[in-house]
Design goal:
Layout: E1 3-11, H1 15-26, E2 31-36, E3 41-47, E4 53-59, E5 82-90, H2 93-99, E6 106-112, E7 115-121, E8 135-140, E9 155-163, H3 166-172, E10 180-184, E11 188-195, E12 198-202
Parallel strand pairs: 1-4, 5-8, 9-10
Antiparallel strand pairs: 1-5, 2-3, 3-4, 6-7, 7-8, 9-11, 11-12
């Protein structure tokens, strides 16, 4: 199974609050994203280079409440904007979910025109290992959000995932990327981003 880093998810109590916080941290502007009708959420985006991006995501106050828990535990989110999740791109969602720990989700067809994708969506909105396990996504067609974003010169340098069961998490991850490290410790996800203004950690 092929798996590569796709994007970071920064959750926020409101999209404006999240976008302002990340723009202040990194010194670059975010781009308009769109709305996810299935989950009642919306986002803003930042390119991290070819095939990779950063997403600020929040509940859309204008959208009807979905009949299921929102992804990334957004229904229970509180506090300042922070990195809550990371997403791996795979080429066979069913095979990836069959090999993933229980709770990685079931395949769901999604779209935010012009983009279409399939994603493993947990019924309760929570991913394994307290959300330290990545969400799994399979893009449909040739379009990817990163390809539609201007390159602001930002790149992911390091992604560090800490969890009390770090060894077990490392054993079930379907990825080999030298930028990504799994450590044993209190649950946390943080990323080092190179920008035109220097290198910064966000968490």
């Amino acid at each position: 199974m092929k798996a590569v880093f796709d994007h970071l998810a920064i959750s926020a109590a409101s999209l404006e609050q999240g976008a302002l916080a990340i723009e202040a941290m990194l010194g670059v502007g975010l781009e308009p994203g769109g709305k996810h009708a299935f989950m009642g959420t919306h986002n803003r985006l930042l390119s991290l280079g070819p095939g990779e991006y950063l997403e600020v995501i929040a509940i859309d106050p204008e959208a009807p409440r979905p009949d299921r828990p929102r992804w990334f535990r957004l229904d229970r989110f509180s506090g300042p904007p922070r990195v809550t999740n990371w997403v791996l791109r795979i080429d066979d969602l069913e095979a990836a979910l069959a090999e993933a720990p229980p709770g990685a989700g079931r395949p769901v067809e999604l779209e935010r025109p012009p983009f279409r994708w399939r994603m493993g969506v947990p019924d309760d909105g929570a991913l394994p290992f307290d959300d330290a396990f990545p969400a799994l996504i399979e893009w449909q067609g040739n379009l990817h959000p990163a390809g539609a974003l201007p390159d602001r010169g930002c790149r992911l340098l390091r992604l560090e995932i800490s969890h009390p069961k770090g060894d077990r998490l490392r054993a079930v991850l379907p990825i080999a990327d030298r930028r990504i490290s799994i450590v044993t410790g209190p649950k946390a996800i943080r990323a080092e981003i190179a920008t035109p203004h220097g290198e910064w950690w966000i968490e």
